[in-house]
Design brief:
It is a single chain. By secondary structure, the protein is α/β, with parallel strands linked by helices. It has 3 domains: about 20-270, Rossmann fold; about 320-415, Anticodon-binding domain of a subclass of class I aminoacyl-tRNA synthetases (Four Helix Bundle (Hemerythrin (Met), subunit A)); about 425-460, no CATH class. The protein is built from 15 helices and 14 strands. It has helices at about 40-55, 85-90, 95-115, 130-140, 170-175, 220-230, 245-260, 290-295, 300-305, 320-345, 355-370, 375-390, 395-415, 425-440, 445-460, and strands at about 5, 10-15, 25-30, 60-70, 120-125, 145, 155, 190-195, 215, 235-240, 265-270, 270-275, 275-280, 315. Strand 12 (about 270-275) and strand 13 form a beta hairpin. Helix 1 (about 40-55) crosses helix 9 (about 300-305), helix 4 packs across helix 6 (about 220-230) and helix 11 (about 355-370) runs parallel beside helix 13. The longest helix has 26 residues, at about 320-345. The protein is globular, with a radius of gyration of 27 Å. The relative contact order is 0.12. Bound molecules: zinc ion. Zinc ion binds near residues 29, 221 and 246. The site of zinc ion has 3 residues, from loops.
Length: about 475
């Protein structure tokens, strides 16, 4: 069995074969940094993190590039209007660059909390203005882009025959189905901006041959993927909401500018709904990750997301998350107990048995089938049953050691860790000390109790007295 992935380009599962043997180039559209990361970000970046981890597990050397959009993404994903980052900058009365950096930091903190590995290269649109101007020049030279008297540059969509192929739309349906704000200087309503002249009051702007202005949103991904991964690369990822217009426009730009096919596999994750409804700031059901982390640790949110296949939507409910937490805690407890037993035992050799081998094989089969984490986790639960059986009967360490190796593989690929951070023994010891202190305090022996507290404080352990 070999890896198959669902390719949005062909709308079917295909055997995965990298362009260069042993290497994978992967580009995933990163966040626009103007607000708190939310559940939608978690779904997307956890999904691609598992893809990244699994490809590495299979032995590929993966170069994973993710951009940070810090300019050019306009409110409402529109073709004209306010820049998302500048809008927030005005509200918070600080520079747009401060906004971008602030939310980028919060984004990476949230990703760390979710145990998402950092990409190999994280690149910013504002750091690539020279390359952006270069690519726009190429598109103008090839007559696929035009400069208007107002100093804007647009892509001539009509001329690119494959426009709409990824999202399965024709130009007519694009026009009738979408509410496109038509700038008066466009040749055709569906042409999209490569460069915009800065209106009065626009802060982020650069010199260019056409006007003092700023790049459109789509061009940055074509430019940065080319710079770090070359003209044609293996995997381009993003949320399903990026298919149109964003990825459609990327394909149009890159294919023409590079004279080469853009991407071999387009992979898209499905979206998050909240209680069956689309999540949106205006709907009042918007769930940010920093808010969620106040109640749940990132590992539980990650586990909850992976319970669904990445191409299925995640319908977020409080009950669902609570249920996931219960399961996660149960798994953790069993694994912690197993590891406690192993660490306190003499050395044994591994004892594999057919049950364990089969669980490994089935898990890898599930991952090979378009990264089916949902099915994969069902085998993890089978393994937990096996451990529980062992813990309540034979306690055969050599067999537990073999299961532990299996669990470690699950943890590596899924990016989940099931052992609580505190060592069990330490935790028990602290509880005993605490009990003694409580007794001392109850007998009004505050001097002794304080002495113990001070000594614990010196070890960096904070003790809070109740009442
Ligand atoms: Zn992109």
């Amino acid at each position: 069995m070999s890896l198959v992935v669902y390719n949005t380009i062909t709308r079917k599962k295909e055997e995965f074969k990298s362009i260069k043997e042993g290497y994978v180039g992967m580009y995933v559209c990163g966040p626009t940094v103007y607000g708190y990361p939310h559940l939608g970000h978690a779904k997307s970046y956890v999904s691609f993190d598992v893809i990244y981890r699994y490809l590495r597990y299979l032995g590929y050397k993966v170069k994973y590039v993710q951009n940070i959009t810090d300019v050019g993404h306009l409110v409402g994903d529109a073709e004209s209007g306010e820049d998302k980052i500048e809008k927030v900058a005005k509200i918070e009365s600080i520079d747009p660059q401060e906004i971008a950096y602030k939310y980028e930091t919060i984004y990476f903190d949230a990703m760390r909390e979710l145990n998402v590995l950092p990409p190999s290269i994280s690149c910013r649109a504002t750091g690539h203005i020279i390359e952006i101007i270069d690519m726009i020049k190429t598109l103008i030279d090839k007559d696929f882009a035009y400069v208007t008297s107002e100093g804007n540059v647009y892509y001539r969509v009509n001329k690119f025959k494959d426009y709409g192929a990824l999202s399965n739309r024709t130009l007519d349906s694009v026009l009738s189905g979408e509410r496109i704000e038509v700038a008066t200087d466009k040749e055709h309503p569906s042409d999209f901006a490569l460069w915009k002249k800065a209106e009065n009051g626009h802060i982020m702007k650069w010199n260019s041959p056409w006007s003092v202005g700023y790049p459109g949103w789509h061009i940055e991904c074509s430019v940065m993927s080319k710079k770090y991964l070359g003209n044609t690369f293996d995997i381009h990822g993003g949320g399903m909401d990026n298919i149109f217009p964003h990825h459609e426009c990327e394909i149009a730009q890159s294919t023409i500018a590079n004279d080469a096919p853009f991407v071999k596999y387009f992979i898209h994750n499905n979206l998050v709904t909240v209680n069956g409804q689309k999540m949106g700031k205006s709907l009042g059901n918007f769930i940010t990750l920093p808010d969620l982390f106040k109640e749940y640790n990132g590992m539980i949110i990650r586990f909850y997301i992976l319970l669904n296949h990445y191409r299925k939507p995640t319908d977020f409910t409080k009950e669902g998350l609570t249920e996931a937490k219960k399961t996660y805690d149960r798994i953790s407890e069993t694994i912690t107990n197993m590891r406690f037993l192993i660490s306190n035992s003499e050395l044994y050799t591994l004892e594999l048995n057919p049950d364990i081998e089969l669980l490994k094989e089935n898990f890898l089969k599930a991952m090979d089938d378009d990264f089916n984490t949902s099915l994969g986790i069902s085998y993890l639960l089978e393994a937990i049953k096996l451990i529980n059986k062992e813990l309540t009967s034979d306690k055969k360490i050599s067999r537990l050691l073999a299961i532990n190796e299996l669990i470690k593989m699950y943890e590596e690929i899924l990016g989940l860790t099931f052992t609580s951070n505190t060592n069990n023994k330490e935790q028990n010891l602290l509880e005993i000390i605490n009990e003694i202190r409580n007794d001392l305090r109850a007998n009004k022996n505050y001097e002794e109790a304080d002495k113990i507290r001070e000594k614990l404080n010196n070890l960096g352990i904070t003790v809070n007295d109740r009442g």
